Write a sequence for this structure.
């Protein structure tokens, strides 16, 4: 037993601080000695409880002492290890458990979610205290728990803990259950209690595929959708529960569904009605009511500015005064009243005709040359407020300085924020999204800190999300869209909610979260029952989501519905037409539709050079299936176009990767194996290897594998039989190819997204690595090695991460070594220290946190100011590691990558792109007490000159012969 084990009795007696107890719990899960001693202590406690089995103060005291122990939170760990064998109770069926185990005798139920265990699913009204505290749930009866454990009713035990809010222990017992619709439903209930509705939705989708009329799954699905703000989809799920006819549950489900529909319809009706009243006010009709201004103050303010500009007389201006007072009061200012006073002093003999034309502008009747003429006349007439309003209808790239000057001259914060938003949009259109991001981040921070201008702040949040999506940062984009959607819901801005549902659906599809993508887009379709025009974009997005899920028939059906809307086609719709060209669902008219769409987009003048390259790729991909020569020529032209564009252009990057995808699969389909392997190498900017190389790519239903063995012989495999999106890569490479590669000293793998960076592509007894880029993997010539070691990191307490073992190998002399440990190991200091290092070791926690970054992050010590602790892929962007180091990321999940359609993101790839010659990282958890023992010999052999692939393979095989733990099979090498 280690010195840590000395704390077991203190832990059992509940004498440790909560943070220390949490750390000890992690130790207990891995320490066999502590687990054994824990059983003994627990058995003694139970025997003591039996000895005091007579009523009276002594009995009550013993029971109270037992139930108040803080370590009771880990009793299930001992139960799982065989506590039931130590408790001599007769075996009973789980339904014989006392009702109090399920809190079944209470008048109301404690959870809104439903659980699948019969004892825990009786209907009672759901009620929570407004204080958020409520009555404390009845303590668990240990003897009843023991009976459930002896009967192996792990679902019952999990339900009992879940009812009492002990989510960690509920999860531990759910882990013991076999896969089923019930398990997915209970896990979804747990996720909802943890405020993770997205995770719950995925689990419930799987449960309902297994059992479509699963009552608890349908109920929990409705709750998940409701918490995501998808009211009409939630109502549909509740209505499905209502149709099942369950006592109590069906009535409550019907009531909930009707309430959701009523609220959604009222919100839609209020917003659309106010929009109509707004235009009537601009055209000279009655001002908006006080109630309307209170309900939708953002839209009311937009309407008032336009009505003021369109006012034809001082009397009309004065009629708007009550509305201005109400809206000014909401922002605690007088900006609108000041604007009314300025306007009332204008010369209306000159202003009235211009005001009338401004009203026509708001109705969409003044465009193109007429708008330019109107702007000129406004300048000549010196009607600055009208000019400011009219400029908003022009391209934001036009007259940016003029607009900003006019906006700031008003002294109104509304227009100051609007100027930033408009300039950011102009930056994004001018292919400067980074500048747009910085501008919007500063503006959003300003308006968020002020607590005012919530409508403008919400719109800027959305604009920032669009910029993040353009920069292909879907995690950041989604966070902005979610924040904006929350603000739009709170302010009942139905129109903005619809836009944001579309945005969130597209981001979810980009991230491969097809369940969430469909949920958002289906909600959008339910909210737009008026007709085709409002549904075209949503239908196209939903069609793409179905295609990503390899539901080609569903994708075709939705695409045809979108086409019938007769709207100008989007690039996404054309891309889907190109994908369908290789399926039985292509149609004769698709070529005409594609040509019409390409022409419309090219003539629109809104496409930058990257977009045009992407359009050429779509054209080539489509014709590759009918006319190979024409298709190949178009794809080669698209590749040539991308070479002239900066790497920051996302559309150009997509055009490049997608064009290689089409060319590589065309070679695989026609059996041109040498050409296929040459294309892999060309894409990686490296000469085609003559032996011991493997190329692997996956695209929707297609797989292509090509290799050269140790003798240089070509082998290949091509198929189109995948029926579900790729999950794991084990078995992706055919056995014949694996057998041929075994004679290789090591294998370079040229893998493309989404295969790249996944563990298990080749067996662990073969020396192999992912080859990234075309630079040689030799170290730079220099006189002295420089090693950087990052260790003893002080992770933020808020992350609740256990302390890692101190780094102190006895064999390390410290020569040529830089050590950053403790508070020194902050992200900026680590980045600075690694620039000239030839070897970098990071011993820290790794976490996958979608709220922080697209891939895994390294948890370092927080900075003194700002508290920044995470080292992300973004931090490495632009860094130059001049020492071309070998990098060891001895952190859990550090090898995890996020795969998108055109590229992968991950720490190993970021290190390679920054100059590292090799990166070692694991895709899963690393046991703290085993990390040094495994990685030190690997690094030592690499220092001796052994190829990294061979060093990793040999040490891994030696480890597996000596140890039972197999985590080393998840360690990957990138070169």
């Amino acid at each position: 037993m280690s010195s840590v084990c000395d704390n077991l009795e203190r832990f059992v007696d509940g004498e440790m601080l909560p943070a220390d107890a949490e750390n000890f719990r992690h130790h207990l899960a891995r320490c066999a000695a502590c687990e054994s001693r824990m059983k003994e202590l627990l058995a003694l406690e139970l025997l003591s409880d039996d000895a005091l089995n007579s009523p009276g103060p002594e009995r009550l005291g013993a029971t109270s002492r037992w139930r108040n122990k803080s370590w009771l939170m880990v009793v299930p760990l001992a139960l799982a290890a065989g506590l039931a064998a130590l408790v001599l109770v007769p075996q009973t069926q789980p339904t014989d458990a006392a009702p109090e185990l399920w809190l079944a005798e209470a008048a109301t139920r404690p959870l809104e979610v439903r659980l699948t265990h019969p004892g825990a699913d009786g209907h009672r009204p759901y009620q929570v205290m407004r204080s958020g505290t409520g009555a404390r749930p009845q303590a668990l009866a240990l003897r009843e728990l023991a009976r459930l454990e002896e009967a192996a009713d792990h679902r019952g035990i999990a339900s009992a803990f879940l009812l009492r809010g002990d989510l960690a222990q509920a999860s531990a017992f759910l882990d013991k259950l076999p896969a089923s619709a019930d398990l997915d439903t209970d896990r979804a209930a747990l996720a909802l209690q943890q405020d993770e509705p997205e995770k719950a939705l995925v689990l419930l989708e799987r449960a309902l595929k297994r059992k479509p009329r699963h009552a608890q799954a349908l109920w929990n699905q409705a709750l998940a959708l409701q918490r995501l703000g998808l009211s009409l989809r939630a109502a549909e799920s509740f209505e499905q529960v209502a149709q099942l006819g369950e006592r109590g549950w069906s009535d409550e489900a019907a009531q909930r569904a009707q309430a959701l529909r009523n609220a959604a319809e009222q919100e839609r009706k209020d917003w659309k009605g106010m929009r109509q009243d707004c235009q009537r006010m601009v055209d000279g009709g009655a001002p908006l009511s006080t109630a309307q201004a209170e309900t939708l103050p953002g839209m009311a303010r937009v309407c008032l500015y336009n009505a003021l500009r369109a006012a034809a007389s001082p009397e009309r201006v004065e009629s708007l005064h009550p509305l201005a007072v109400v809206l000014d009061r909401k922002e605690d200012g007088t900006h609108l009243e000041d604007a009314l006073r300025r306007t009332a002093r204008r010369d209306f003999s000159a202003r009235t005709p211009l005001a009338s034309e401004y009203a026509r502008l708001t109705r969409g009747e003044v465009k193109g040359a007429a708008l330019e003429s109107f702007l000129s006349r406004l300048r000549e007439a010196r009607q600055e407020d009208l000019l400011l309003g009219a400029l908003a209808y022009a391209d934001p790239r036009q007259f940016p300085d003029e607009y900003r000057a006019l906006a700031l001259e008003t002294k109104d914060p509304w227009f100051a924020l609007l100027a930033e938003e408009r300039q950011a949009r102009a930056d994004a259109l001018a292919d400067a999204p980074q500048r747009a991001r910085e501008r919007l981040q500063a503006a959003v921070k300003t308006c968020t800190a002020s607590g005012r201008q919530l409508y403008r702040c919400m719109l800027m949040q959305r604009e920032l999300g669009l910029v993040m999506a353009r920069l292909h940062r879907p995690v950041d984009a989604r966070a902005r869209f979610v924040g904006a959607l929350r603000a739009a819901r709170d302010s009942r801005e139905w129109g903005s909610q619809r836009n944001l549902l579309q945005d969130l659906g597209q981001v979810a599809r980009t991230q491969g979260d097809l369940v969430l993508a469909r949920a958002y887009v289906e909600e959008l379709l339910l909210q737009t029952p008026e007709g085709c025009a409002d549904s075209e974009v949503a239908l196209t997005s939903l069609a793409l989501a179905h295609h990503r899920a390899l539901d080609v028939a569903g994708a075709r059906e939705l695409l045809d519905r979108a086409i019938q809307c007769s709207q100008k086609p989007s690039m996404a719709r054309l891309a889907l037409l190109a994908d369908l060209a290789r399926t039985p669902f292509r149609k004769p008219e698709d070529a005409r539709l594609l040509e019409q769409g390409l022409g419309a987009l090219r003539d629109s003048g809104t496409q930058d050079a990257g977009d045009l390259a992407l359009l050429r790729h779509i054209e080539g991909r489509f014709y590759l299936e009918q006319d190979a020569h024409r298709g190949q020529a178009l794809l080669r032209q698209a590749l040539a176009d991308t070479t002239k564009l900066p790497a920051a252009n996302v559309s150009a990057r997509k055009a490049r990767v997608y064009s290689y995808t089409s060319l590589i699969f065309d070679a695989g389909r026609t059996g041109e194996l040498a050409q296929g392997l040459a294309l892999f190498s060309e894409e990686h900017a490296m000469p085609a290897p003559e032996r011991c190389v493997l190329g692997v790519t996956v695209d929707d239903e297609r797989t292509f594998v090509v290799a050269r063995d140790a003798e240089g012989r070509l082998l290949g495999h091509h198929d189109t039989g995948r029926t579900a999106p790729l999950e794991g890569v084990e078995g992706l490479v055919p056995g014949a190819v694996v057998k041929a590669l075994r004679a290789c000293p090591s294998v370079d793998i040229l893998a493309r997204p989404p295969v790249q960076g996944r563990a298990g592509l080749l067996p662990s007894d073969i020396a192999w690595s992912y080859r990234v880029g075309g630079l040689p993997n030799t170290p730079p010539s220099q006189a002295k090695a420089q090693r950087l070691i990052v260790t003893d990191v002080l992770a933020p307490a808020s992350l609740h991460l256990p302390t890692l073992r101190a780094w102190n190998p006895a064999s390390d002399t410290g020569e040529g070594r830089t050590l950053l440990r403790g508070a020194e190991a902050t992200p900026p200091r680590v980045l600075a220290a690694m620039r000239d290092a030839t070897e970098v070791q990071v011993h820290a926690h790794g976490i996958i946190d979608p709220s922080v970054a697209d891939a895994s992050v390294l948890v370092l010590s927080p900075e003194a100011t700002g508290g920044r602790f995470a080292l992300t892929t973004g931090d490495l962007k632009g860094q130059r590691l001049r020492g071309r180091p070998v990098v060891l990321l001895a952190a859990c999940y550090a090898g995890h990558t996020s795969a998108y359609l055109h590229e992968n993101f991950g720490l190993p790839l970021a290190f390679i792109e920054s100059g590292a010659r090799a990166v070692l990282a694991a895709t899963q958890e690393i046991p703290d007490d085993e990390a040094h023992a495994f990685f030190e010999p690997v690094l030592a052999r690499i220092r001796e000159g052994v190829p990294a692939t061979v060093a990793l393979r040999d040490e891994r095989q030696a480890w597996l012969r000596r140890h039972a733990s197999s985590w080393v099979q998840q360690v990957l090498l990138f070169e």
